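Hi R.,

Here's the chain you asked about this morning:
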Amino acid sequence: MSTKGVGRPKEGNPEETRRAILRAAVDSFARAGFAGATTRNVALKAGVNVATLHYHFGSKEGLYRAVWDDVFREKPAVNGYGLGPGERLLSVLTTLLEHGIRRPWLSRLALQQLLSPVAVAGGLPEDPRVPALQEALRDVSPSTGEGDTGTADLARRIVALLDATVVSLAQAGGSSSSGEGAAPGQPGDSTLSLPQEARRLLEAAAVTLARPALVPRTGYREVA
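And here is the predicted structure, written out as tokens:
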């Protein structure tokens, strides 16, 4: 039997095939991490053979990089301009939390990468949530003692806290933490809500990390 052209899409829409593989991959990587996910299982979830997966993405590493490129394609629509420093920080935090609530698989994927870093050729794309938060943090805490590097590190820590909150809410709500069935980079059908208590706790933690004592006009009590 001839094997000529094995893996090359023969019918259907190649872009739809590629999207199906990405949907399956983001679910697998979010659930099991890079080490635990296999191209065989991803292909099975996507309804294609492994050769087709490799035709589109080349390797498991190439697929992982493509997943990250895709999930970060849609950036959170942060705002809060014109507000005071403290109010703007809280506005950005709320936007990022709501962004994550609609994409719980993103938070699980980010935590998997944080706990078990995977190095890929060319590196992974920058998380757009970090510079968005970093800009708001500069107004609240203009000096961290380490310049922009310190502010970026602080933003990454707060984003990790945000991701942990989203994953906890997903588990408590009994919904899929990977957003199964949703295309990477697209809002899922998650039924998670945004509990006010969870938002207040996240905001309080972020504000405390950003600046131990906010000015009284923000409405927050100074921390001794």
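One quick note: The chain has two domains: 14-71, 85-218.

Cheers,
M.
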